[in-house]
TrEMBL record:
The species this protein was found in: Saccharophagus degradans
Stated name of the protein: DUF6500 family protein
Lineage: Bacteria, Pseudomonadati, Pseudomonadota, Gammaproteobacteria, Cellvibrionales
InterPro entries assigned: DUF6500
Pfam families: DUF6500 (PF20110)
Length: 77
């Protein structure tokens, strides 16, 4: 996953958790505006969410954040 997408996902998860609490759920669409202004990045997020991790449509923001950070740490090694 490109670093800019990783950071966008973490920031969005942090914002949602701060606003609605630890149990807030979201879909990969939460990382994008309602405009389809970056289809490649949207498909990258969708592939990561659906194909790589086989996640449900809605998942807990905390779970997504943990997955992204773990991959960042594992890829840095």
């Amino acid at each position: 996953m490109r670093p800019s997408l990783r950071e966008k996902i973490i920031a969005t998860c942090n914002k949602k958790i701060e606003a609605k609490g630890e149990n807030v759920g979201l879909s990969f669409y939460a990382f994008f505006s309602n405009k389809n202004d970056d289809p490649e990045q949207l498909m990258e997020a969708a592939s990561w969410w659906i194909l790589t991790h086989k996640l449900d449509h809605f998942e807990k923001a905390h779970k997504i954040k943990v997955l992204v950070i773990a991959e960042k740490v594992n890829n840095a090694s």
